[in-house]
Prior knowledge:
Elements lengths: L6 H33 L1
Amino acid sequence: MEYSLTEHGESLNRALAALGEWGIERCRRIGAERLHEAAS
């Protein structure tokens, strides 16, 4: 049996991928801010 996403699932996947990229960048920024504060 083979499974695949519907058109709606594919569009949701694209939206979630963009949200995931935002989250990764935000985590990097938070980490950089904390390192800067720790060095001060």
